[in-house]
Amino acid sequence: MPQELLLQVTPEIAADQAQLKNHVAKLIKLAANEIQQLVILKRSIDARQKTIKLNLKVAIYLKGEVFKELKLELPDYPNVATAQEVIVVGAGPAGLFAALQLIELGLKPIVLERGKDVRGRRRDLKAINVDHIVNEDSNYCFGEGGAGTYSDGKLYTRSKKRGDVTRILELLVAYGATPDILVEAHPHIGTNKLPQIIQDIREKIIACGGQVLFETRVTDILLKNNEVEGVVTQKGDTILANKLILATGHSARDIFELLDRKKILIEAKPFALGVRAEHPQSLIDSIQYSCDYRGALLPPAPYSIVKQVGGRGMYSFCMCPGGVIAPCATSPGEVVTNGWSPSKRDQATANSGIVIELKLEDFKPFAKFGALAGMEFQKSIEQKAWHLAGESQKVPAQRMIDFTKNIVSSEIPKTSYVPGTTSVEMGQVFPGFLTQILREGFTEFGKSMRGYLTNEAILHAPESRTSSPVRIPRDPITYEHLQIKGLYPCGEGAGYAGGIISAAIDGEKCALMIGESLHKKTSNQ
Predict the structure, then answer these.
(1) Could you tell me the pTM of the whole model?
(2) What is the DSSP string of 30-76?
(3) I need a surface site. Which of 69, 143, 288, 429 has the fewest CB within 10 A?
(4) How far is CA 48 from the centre of its chain?
């Protein structure tokens, strides 16, 4: 058995295998040539002191010990072409991993995706960036892989109770992700690498006898005696199955409206809302690493910051080092921002959502919409921003200090947001209480991160799709909807996940619950 060791080293030692081996040999009081192999199991950066160190967990294989290179393989998926069918609505991480798990269980997934495949989506992303044209079915939120495909590809979750994170990471590696995601404390894949991985997952689903149908938007759910019978698509096709995983993402407003119309139980859910702040990456590096230049051995610095302001949490969300800001509207007449990074995180700017937690009481002006009150609140801000910025995909923007002082910025430099910006006093975008909290909060952020509060930073509004404004209630044990038999609300859109990993885990869990339900039914017959 290899010996495992926790140690702290400089970036120079961590980057050089020979130096690292010599360092470890001294720690364990052996000659370096007695060490056959060093394997880094975990890696994180400690930048709390002026001298930056890397925390490593290593496995030490001495001469004579058996060492095998890690090789992750896919499960032995059966062919399910003639098996019982389960409808999966949505081809984001929840839907795709639900489909893979269904195949493992010997069930046939029929994946219905309103958007296009990963390649087809690119034309529609260009249209929104260059021509300001929003395709309601194919955009940064809808299409194969969901919102995660063209995102930073972050692969960590704050919750340790969600499930087997390692299993999801290992599956992603088996489908082509770099093994580094198993090592890094905050792993990510990068938006340039995710599309191929997602395409490979889809091809595996099809090769095993499953179906994946693109440009197939669900417009109705067929019910009989409060049990699922199937769905109807926008083309008028009927697809029958008595098990349905609903994994449509946090922006599928038409699905929330459909459920509400059909009197299928849903409820308003609090979420967070704010702006996306962009700084020069070099500035964030200098703050986080306490240096003028980070050098080649350190990655672009991220940051995470949380404050209590006015009795509410204000915090960074989906921070993208070396990344860009993207237009994420899903309907004409609204603007929405989000951020992503390529795998190398090599862009000149860093961006992060800076958001404030909302409460159900904030949605009272929209009470007439019932369970959709939060969604309508969200929509009203996105539409107001669209009007203020000139009724295109340009977004309202303001320099950070100018915002805190209620000054319209005289000019906005070019930012990474391709459709462009319009200089606006952004207090007009938000309700007064949110504006006040944001202004106070940025001042507090500046006290914790010296240099963060600067007019070099440009705020873009709004960052409004942090999570779903609706929860679709389900039984905590069976994962089945509380009212509709055979309906399994799943992932971010249903209010049970917050990112690629947690959504994928939730997709697997829903599939497992369906397998268990069908097994019980068979056993009782």
Answers:
(1) 0.95
(2) S-GGGEEEEEEEEEEEE-SSSS-EEEEEEEEEETTS-----------
(3) 69
(4) 27
